[in-house]
Design brief:
mainly beta; SH3 type barrels; 2 domains; 7-stranded mixed beta sheet; 2 helices; elongated; PRC_barrel-like_sf; PRC-barrel domain-containing protein; PRC-brl_dom
Length: 149
């Protein structure tokens, strides 16, 4: 499993030619709680979108894709919130657990398996961040994730 921030700045390589296409700039997660694609900045500073279907593997040090022809050139990375970072996390009984700081992704199938929660800088430093499982999420919106007690 990888955190979303661990994917950023990884090199993206076309597996058939061994060509370095660029580096991951941003990830995109759709409402089905699955990684839907990556925004990659090429060596010539062009931005392209790599859909999940084009990704062969996500490794520790690089991401391999099938073909650079299957990527879509885009003008810019959408300004939307990425993977709900900054959203509050509250239990169904109304207890505030903190805010979402990152997502946890299963590399083999691109599914979001959990969310890393921050409860403030000092608590993060002293006790570490907690992770809630995707299965514990009851519902969510743009502002608040509601999880089981």
């Amino acid at each position: 499993m990888k955190k979303g921030r661990e994917l950023k700045n990884l090199p993206v390589i076309e597996i058939s030619s061994g060509q370095l296409l660029g580096y991951v700039r941003e990830i995109e997660v759709k409402e089905n709680s699955r990684l839907s694609g990556l925004y990659v900045t090429s060596l010539s500073n062009e931005i392209c979108y790599v859909p999940w279907e084009n990704i062969v593997s996500i490794g520790r040090d690089a991401i391999f894709i099938k073909s650079k022809e299957d990527n879509q050139k885009v003008e810019s990375v959408p300004v939307e919130k990425t993977a709900y970072c900054g959203s509050w996390v509250m239990t169904i009984s109304g207890k505030n657990l903190g805010t979402i700081e990152d997502i946890v992704i299963e590399e083999c199938n691109g599914s979001v398996v959990g969310y890393e929660i921050s409860d403030g800088y000092l608590k993060d430093f002293l006790m570490g961040r907690s992770v809630i499982a995707q299965a514990d999420v009851v519902t969510y919106g743009d502002d608040v994730f509601i999880v089981a007690d």
